[in-house]
Amino acid sequence: MTELLERRDYGALIRPTQVHGSLYTSPEIFAAELARIWYTTWVFVGHESEVAQPNDYVRKKLGQQDVIMTRDREGQVHLLLNRCAHRGNQVCEDERGNSGSFRCPYHGWTYRNTGELLGYPFNRGYGGKGQLEKRLALGRVPRVDSYQGFVFGSFAGDGPSLVEHLGAAAGELDRLARLSPEGRAELTAGWLKHRTRANWKLLAENETDGYHPQFVHGSIFSVTDSPIGALYSDKSAAVTRDLGGGHSENDLRPEFRRVGKPMRWFGTTEQRVPEYVAAMRDAYGADAERIMVEGGPHVMIFPNLFVAEIQVFNIQPVAPGECVQYVTAVQLAGGRELNQRMISQSIGSVGPAGMLLADDTEMYERNQAGVAARSPEWLDISRGVGRESVDEAGHPVGTATDEVGMRGFWAHYRALMEAQ
Amino acid sequence: MTAGADLAELALQEVEAFLYLEARLADESDYDGWESLWTEDAIYWVPAGRADADPRAQVSVIFDNRSRIATRLNQLRTGKRYAQSPASNLRRLISNVEILGRTEGGDTEVGANFLLLESRARGLQLWGGRTTYRVRRVEGELRLAYKKVVLVNLDEPLPTLGFLI
Predict the structure, then answer these.
(1) What is the phi/psi pair of residue B116, to 5°?
(2) ipTM score assigned to the predicted complex
(3) N or C: which end of chain A has fewer CB within 10 A?
(4) Mutate to test the interface with A, among B50, B64, B66, B82 (most CBs of A within 10 A)
């Protein structure tokens, strides 16, 4: 395998409708992924609303890197590496806060929240002030950009822009923002952190797998009379779409349009959230009905941002067999009537004790154990390949339960891993 | 020893016995027995991030009212709640039990520390923290109106918590 990896030939491990088990377990492949995916492409890190005020900061992960997301006094967002340029100590210990600078506890070096070195005690040892500032600073994620407030970082100095990376998936973040009468989704409800003993790709693949809900989530659907199960059945009008760039979605709109009732997507009626519905009609006029009927996106944005209607997941890898799912409830600016319910529903559904995600995570962990088996060596991703079509935008589309999204994920994965 | 101290001591003993019962029912995944301990206005809360976070404004690991406790248990009873099927093998120790006072509503507030061992295919997991209980006498029996479990590692990534903590 080492030889294949050195040649960057992933064709031996990734076939059009099969992927090899070693992709989930190999330390060599994991190391290559860190270099070619996590420390190259655009990766979701956090949201601008988490650092709403000048000088706010919050600690984040980007791959295995410990990153501080800061907002400087001019309002610009930065991603700084949490490592003193002197001896490598961590300059930021608190999870979040408000400060214009960070002071290393080890020898007292201080840095501005933009990364510049401000000072170092007893500076005559370095020939006085102004000697180190030019060559030493906090590490910075070289490219930082945001879309609808979602902050992404790329360790590659150049490459596709964020908008190019997002491609057709950008429209799904627009859809999320349009659920707010003020056009802004915020991530201000804190994060659940779910430690998962499985390879990150099992999660990325599962997020738009419409085949599993009836089975993995049958227990909660059966005791709550949930209508979610029917969205992912053989009879559902919903579709799975490969959006390109490794992004994919379960497009549930056809089902919600069929029913044609505003707020049905949120499991409620317009009568129960009258203020919100009125604000939406004021804000969007004739479009409001369509927005409130169609609901939120269910989109997996490569490699680590999953928007599940009212939840946002940030997946970060730890090791070949371990990752962390960070998950929060969407909060809509101007959506007071919905926001508390979004928090309550999210607590019920996701995170370590969630009545949906704890079961997904159990599956991820059993899958991780399973893929280490010697035989069969391959995982099958052929579902729906014979009935795949292409929509007017040129995206491959399958039924609600087809593995179209996984095939798109692996095609993009392979392109990144083989790039010279 | 005054009569007042006598009463306080008895109350502590009775409360401790109740906490041990609750712990045993949870350890043994006795869903019916455990559910029967709760009052109708119950709150079962496991905060995330910070112990003092507002559970209506910030996400929690668990924040169940009585109705959601029932949903959670009903899901477990299906036998297809895979995060807990098979059920974890559990044993917990409760210690440092103190009666902290009375709430405005007249419930007795009790604090205790706990250590819990969970064994399942994933491995052996140690859980620990501080629990605040509110206990009420209903028709002669003690009942649980409130249980808040503050894990020592509530700000760190947690493994799946499928059992009754």
Answers:
(1) -135, 130
(2) 0.96
(3) C
(4) B82
